[in-house]
Every structure is written in structure tokens, then in C-alpha cells.
Amino acid sequence: MLSIYWGCYASTKQYSLEVSTRNVLKALGVVAKEVDGWSCCGNPFKGINPKLWLYLASRNLSLSGENDILTVCNGCYLSLREAQHLVNSRKDAAEWVERVLELEGLEYRKPKVLHPIEYFKSVLSSEDVVKPLKGLRLGAHYGCHSLRGSLPSFDSPTNPSMFEDIMELLGAEVVRDYAGRLDCCGATLMAINPEVGFAIASSKLKKAGEAGVQGIVTPCPYCFEMLDSRQETLVQLEGAPNMPILLLQQAIGLAIGLGSKDLGLNFNMSPIDNLLKRIG
Amino acid sequence: MLKVGFEKPEKCFQCGRCTSSCTVSRILKDYRPNRIVGFVRHGLVRKILDPSIWNCARCLKCVEYCPQKVAPADIVLNLQYQAVSEGIPFPEAYRAMVEEVSKTGLAFQEMNVTDRDFETWSRESFGLPPFRVGKHVAKISEIVSMIEKGDL
After folding, report:
1. Inter-chain residue contact A50 with B98, CB threshold 8 Å
2. In this predicted complex, what is the ipTM?
3. How many degrees, rounded to 5, is the angle at CA A263 between CA A130 and CA A188?
4. Which of A42, A190, B33, B55 could be A57's S-S partner, Cβ–Cβ 3.0 to 4.6 Å?
5. Looking at the structure, do residues A100 and A133 belong to the same domain, yes or no?
């Protein structure tokens, strides 16, 4: 069985991510197990306090029990997998985690941690697509923590294709190789050095625009916030192009026939209306 | 020390691929991961515990492109930890997230969110189930505070 790990963004502010994920899974007939007690995955604390990171990541792993965990955020995906690797490869880490989890009455478990791209690639079929995203030239923004890092991921970190394959299955015309496709969105820097963060995000949108991308799809809520919610600033500050941005689950939802409210499309701040009109 | 743990500064031969792939170096010319690794490799950590260590975007391109699997981004994380351990001031945003996580189990506060039509929604009014961290919060707070004090 599957449990969905929501992470902080979907839980506290990016309601479109949670609602679109729930409704897409429901439409595909997937029953997920609701879990009590998910906390932050610890990702923000990897540098400032690695023990805090390791505790938070491992408690979520243990809460999932034997169920696979479907993450909906790139940061959570990498954080949970790196914590898992540390516990599995180092005895001192494993002992520390066991001791700390015991204080909470939890037992360390080793669930499989899934990324939404690999998960939806495995469950979607062309029969699910009732409203193909025809006539849209879309580009994928994988986001850094879906593919890179020291651990092997679900697709090639330098030349991935799984995300593009999903969008083609959804009926979109995909710009497979735009410059900057695998570039960072800059979100991590917003709390520290926002000017640099804005410059990074704008460069991404400009490169996509120049390659003829008419809309960007991303699985990550941090990237989404950076490219969608902050887009007006990017346009004004850095001359970035106006670019419709969708979450992966929103794109899937549109193609399988779900409505705007089911997908939280009212929360997208980028100019998605023309894009939506084109698919009817 | 428990840490992310992929870093291997001793393997660096200063080819500079980390810096040529670095997202931030393109904008901040003085931010050079190869230089950071070089200092750490030769035991000169004290020379680079400055605010620039917070400029890493965590894009992990340096980790990807390093031919020696040095994992420069993880070396930067270790420097951040060392700075915090020594009481060197670190970005306020991190402190706020630690406080929030110890209060609620999450890094951010639950928000009411306004949509494109200026309508404001809470989780509840948008039809999402209530958040389920509930009874776990007390224990999480206790353990976070023990970790923060160095008792665990």
C-alpha cells in the first residue's frame, strides 16, 4: 500500500499540491493510507543541525511502517532517502536513530521512498487520458533534488526523460531539450540572498521562453512557488517572460478530465488562463 | 558527528568542474566551491567560515559533475554546521524554522492563502482534511529541544 508524505509546503500553504494529488489519485483509483503524525522531513536543518534533520526524517520513515512513501516535494524526497542511506550505512547513526525514536515510541522502518515522476510514470496509461493537452508546447522542470545528489535516483541526472514521457502521454507537445532544463530555480536562496535567487529563477524562465516553451510543469512545491508565485517579481525585476506554470499533478489532472477546483488551479499566480483555454 | 556524509575533500585535485557547474558562481563571481574545498582539504577551515557559506543554492550540480565524488555541497553543509556550533551568527530564516518545527512539527505556520481571484482559503474551507500531526507534537517538541540543547 501507499502512504503520501505531504511535507510542510503542501500542508501549510500550497493547498493546490495536496488537493490535486488527492484528486488525481482518487480518479486513478488509488487508495492511499492516511498517516497520523507526519512532521517536517528535516531538509532545512541538514546544515545547521544534522541531528535534527536525521531525527525528523527517520520519524517520518518509521511512521510509514511497511507502506511505500510517495513524496510530493523534491526536498522531502532527497532528505528521506539520504537519511535512509545514512542509517543503513552507518552503525552509529542507526543506533542513535533507534535510541531517539524510542523516546517517541517509534521503531525505525525502511519503506521505499518514491518520487511523483517515477510513481505516475508507473501508474498512468494512455487510457486514463480523456482530455489530451493538445497544442501545448510544455517544458519539464525536474528540480534539483529529484535527480542530483550522491545517491542514484529514478532517472539519469544528466539526461533524464521520464518526466517528458509522462507529458507526451498526456498529449502535450514537449520541448525535450531546452537550455537550462536541469537548472536550479533558486528557491533555497530566497531566505538568504533573494537577489541571487531571483536572478537564478529568471535565467531559467528566459532560457525556456527562448526555446519556445509555452508552459513549464514541475513536481516540486519550492520550485513552483519560485517560478509561479514569485513570477510577477521576476518579470518586473529581471525581465523574465510571462510563463504559465503547472504542478505535475495539475497537468495530469487536466488530462484525465478533472476540473479547475479539483486541481486548485485558482491558486496558480502565473498566467495559466490562455493555456487552459487552448485545451478547452 | 552525524552528518549527511558523502563529502571527501581529500580527493579533490582542483579541476574546477564544481565551480564551472555552480549555479551561484555564475552570479556571485567570488563564490567558488573549488576554493572552499581546497581550503578544507588543507585544514584551513577557519579561513572560510564567513557568511559566503550560506550562499549555496543546494542545486547539487557540483556533486553531479565532480569527477572525484568530493561532494562539495556537503562540505559546505559541514561548514555551516561548524559555524553554527561555534556560535557564529547564521541566517534568521533557519532559526525561525527551528522554532516553528519545535512548536508544530512543521517548518512553517499553517496559512490562509489568497487565490488569483482574491478569495482567501484555509485548509478547511478548501475542503482539505485537518492536519494530522496533533497528538505527536508534544513529543516532537521535547525531542527537538533535547537535540537543540545537545542532550541527544
Report:
1. no
2. 0.96
3. 125
4. A42
5. no
E strands, A111-198, are 113-114, 137-140, 173-174
Q: Range of A217's domain?
A: 127-276
Instruction: Collect all residues of chain B within an 8 Å Cβ-Cβ radius of residue A145.
Output: 58, 60
Residue B2 lies in a domain: no
Question: Residue A16 pLDDT > 90, yes or no?
Answer: yes
Residue with cell 565524488: B69
Q: How far apart are the CA of B51 and the nearest CA of chain A, in angstroms?
A: 10
Q: What is the CATH number of the domain that holds B58?
A: 1.10.1060.10
Q: How many domains does chain A have?
A: 2
Identify whether residues A230 and A139 lie together within a single domain. yes
Burial (CB < 10 A; 0-12, 13-18, 19+), residue A1, is exposed
- Portion 226-245 of A in contact with B at CB < 8 A: none
Domain check: are A142 and A272 in the same one? yes
Are residue B61 and residue B97 in the same domain, yes or no? no
Task: Report the alpha-carbon distance of residue B35 to residue A157 in Å, rounded.
Answer: 25
- B88 touches A: beta carbon within 8 Å: no
- Put simply, whether A5 touches B (Cβ < 8 Å) is no
Same domain for A146 and A84: no
Does this model's pTM top 0.95?
A: yes
B5 phi-psi bin (left φ>0, alpha ψ -120 to 50, beta other) = left
* Under 8 Å between Cβ of A28 and A124: yes
A235 occurs within a structural domain: yes
CA A243 to chain centre: 18
What pLDDT, in 10s, does the model give residues A255-270? 999 999 999 999 999 9
Distances (CA, A) of A158 to A146, A179, A180, A182, A215: 12, 13, 12, 8, 22
Contacts of A193 in chain B (CB under 8 A): 54-55
Does A196 share its domain with A134?
yes
Q: Is residue A33 located within the same domain as residue A172?
A: no
Of B85, B102, B131, the domain-final residue: B85
Asked, for residue B3, whether it belongs to a domain, the answer is: no
Q: What domain range is B129 assigned to?
A: 92-149
